[in-house]
Amino acid sequence: MHSKGNSCCCSFDECKLGTEWLLSRTRHRPKIAVICGSGLGFLAESISNKQAFRYEDIPNFPVSTVPGHDGQLVFGYINDKPCVFMQGRFHLYEGYSLCKVTLPVRMFKLMGVEMIIVTNASGGLCQDFKVGDIMVIKDHINLPGFAGQHPLCGPNDERFGIRFPCMSDAYSKDLRKLALDISTELGYSDFVREGVYCMVSGPNFETVAEARMLHILGSDSVGMSTIPEVTVAKHCGLRVLGLSLITNKVPLDYSNEEKVNHEEVLHISKMRAEMLQNVLNTFIARSDQVETINSC
Ligand SMILES: O=P(O)(O)O[C@@H]1C[C@H](O)[C@@H](CO)O1
Ligand code: HPA
């Protein structure tokens, strides 16, 4: 692969170096990766046989700068399933390139991960959504991507995936169905929905006019992450499940005096810990019930 001009800062070799560093220090060989969103690091708490690595120790890994994102990679088991959890993710607004933001996903691929579960905190735009609902992500709108902020811009490395990947089935239908079935079985059907997630770069929360625009465009929730990770995961052939916790309602009219802030986002994440953890752990335990072939 030649590399020129707008070249990627996270080459195959850089991803491989970090992966080999990790694999030489752990016996764990995860098949499932989980990215924990804002305030959702507790999702890694029920892992057994834990082994953790601080991000700053892993070669080429970025470091977390946002409250609610601890900054460690935790290996272990949920039931008998080998997993790796990212307690803390990276965002464009922290100043990282999208290449760097998504570097962990490529490292997961190189270490043999087959499925990724991406979680986040987001603001609800759909009027039916309540604070504390979980949205199983059905599809997304990559707003930064429309403006050229896209993790696959630059030379394409075929060792990861093809130049023009299909995204119409980024969120596996079978995995979504399993997550929804599990939510019903657990008695959570009143709090679990499906919907479209839209990414903005942040770091400010939306104006009323922006929120209205996103709603009209078909977004059910809005956040500042996830889509770059999902895009890179789909590019390299990982199966994807996306879970979004609705931590606030985004005001769509000027009479609404509610003001969202990051502390509230973290508070709601903590409040819904048990429900989200039950859905996630049951999902992981039963994830081998679905065999999905990436169709495009
Ligand atoms: O990492 P996620 O997407 O869960 O974090 C959301 C978006 C912003 O980073 C932050 C705003 O409170 O939470
Ligand atoms: O309302 C929001 N907007 C953008 N990102 C968010 N993350 C949590 N809530 C929000």
UniProtKB/TrEMBL annotation:
Keyword Protease on entry: no
Pathway stated in the Swiss-Prot or TrEMBL entry: Purine metabolism; purine nucleoside salvage
Protein's UniProt keywords contain Transferase: yes
Domain of life where this protein originates: Eukaryota
Family assignment from sequence similarity: Belongs to the PNP/MTAP phosphorylase family.
Taxonomy of the source species: Eukaryota, Metazoa, Chordata, Craniata, Vertebrata
Residue sites binding a purine D-ribonucleoside per the record: E206, N248
Residue numbers binding phosphate: S38, H69, R89, F90, H91, A121, S225
Protein name as it appears in the record: Purine nucleoside phosphorylase
Catalytic reaction(s) noted: guanosine + phosphate = alpha-D-ribose 1-phosphate + guanine; inosine + phosphate = alpha-D-ribose 1-phosphate + hypoxanthine; 2'-deoxyguanosine + phosphate = 2-deoxy-alpha-D-ribose 1-phosphate + guanine; 2'-deoxyinosine + phosphate = 2-deoxy-alpha-D-ribose 1-phosphate + hypoxanthine
GO molecular function: purine-nucleoside phosphorylase activity
E.C. number(s) listed in UniProt: 2.4.2.1
One Gene Ontology biological process: purine ribonucleoside salvage
Task of the protein: Catalyzes the phosphorolytic breakdown of the N-glycosidic bond in the beta-(deoxy)ribonucleoside molecules, with the formation of the corresponding free purine bases and pentose-1-phosphate. Preferentially acts on 6-oxopurine nucleosides including inosine and guanosine.
SUPFAM superfamilies: Purine and uridine phosphorylases
UniProt keyword annotations, A-Z: Glycosyltransferase, Purine salvage, Transferase
Pfam families xrefs: PNP_UDP_1
UniProt enzyme class: transferase
Segments forming a coiled coil: none
